[in-house]
UniProtKB/TrEMBL annotation:
SUPFAM superfamilies: Acyl-CoA dehydrogenase C-terminal domain-like, Acyl-CoA dehydrogenase NM domain-like
Protein family membership: Belongs to the acyl-CoA dehydrogenase family.
Cofactor list: FAD
Molecular function GO labels: fatty-acyl-CoA binding; flavin adenine dinucleotide binding; glutaryl-CoA dehydrogenase activity
Superkingdom as given in the UniProt entry: Bacteria
One of the protein's GO biological processes: fatty-acyl-CoA biosynthetic process
Protein name: Glutaryl-CoA dehydrogenase
Ranges where the Acyl-CoA dehydrogenase/oxidase C-terminal domain occurs: 238-385
Residue ranges of every copy of the Acyl-CoA dehydrogenase/oxidase N-terminal domain listed in the record: 21-131
Amino acid sequence: MSRQPGQPDPTDLLDVAALLTDEERAIQATVRRLLAEHAEPYAGEWFERAEFPRALVPRFAELGLLGMHLDGYGCAGTNAVSYGLACLELEAVDSALRSFVSVQGSLAMYALWRFGSPRQKEEWLPAMAAGTAIGCFGLTEPDHGSDPAAMATTALRTDAGWVLDGTKMWITNGGIADVAIVWARTDTGVRGFCVPRGTPGFATRDMHHKLSLRASVTSELILSGCEVPDEAILPEATGLRAPLACLNEARFGIVWGALGAARSCLATAVDYARERTQFGRPVAAFQLTQEKLVEMALELNKGMLLALHLGRRKDAGQLRPDQVSFGKLNNVRAALQIARTARTILGANGISLEYPVLRHANNLESVLTYEGTSEIHTLVLGEAITGLPAFR
């Protein structure tokens, strides 16, 4: 973004960057440089071709982005704020990149790291951190999205282990995953299973014709008489609290990531409005345009303060699930409004892939509903405020 000497950065009017540590700023800058060279120039093409850039995976691994907030097993062990900043930079390029890193690290790897057996951890986590193995997280079902407690996928115990039957839908990374963390109903409640690709009875089918997250691999997981041994079960994952804990990890990344898309849209709108001339002067000189830019900047900068506050609480071990819902609900909603407003400033050019604005808006429509819809997070906060659940 071009600025006049002494002009503040519209995407950081409150100097939130000054509240970061030197290490956090260095991590953010490193991720941003990598993406500026190897991702940002090509993001529009990937979106248009519905192509996930698998060549980036080794680069992400080399930088330590995969499972970066986890300790041991080849993971970087960074703090939560650094992970959030990485998510912000990834989604500033395209939500598909942040989604890949989020599912790999905060869902699949985190499930193994927190709930897996020592053998499962040793087998999968180092390879996943190195990018040589990709994971996915099978919770959502065709008829059970917001209500995972009603899942239809079952796991029946046999003399040899377990047999899984069911279907999972809208699974990021599913078609390219080497291992799936699958959640199923057993006679003792919901349990998690580690299902490697190639297991008999396990198949995936990619979902096409998407208008959002086009550069992301989205798949259906099909389990039909899928036989796994006893060692496949995640021993420490009992009940629905286990997958929900994983979702909380991923939602934290979304709190930051959505602001990356918003930052990209605001920066694009500011530059465009200053360069585009109508009625003999720059569009940015009109009061209505300035009002739009101010509203966008207000929401982005407030969102950054919220994300940083939640990050500091997470690093202190004090972050509650309802606070994550607060961040996800507010920041994704604000980011989507910023993207839509930016599109109006760009006019007809706003629908072109020459600019990232409508691409971000389309992607954010998915971010708005996955890992908890706005309605679900509203009810989470409603219960926190009133003490009364309203889900049923």
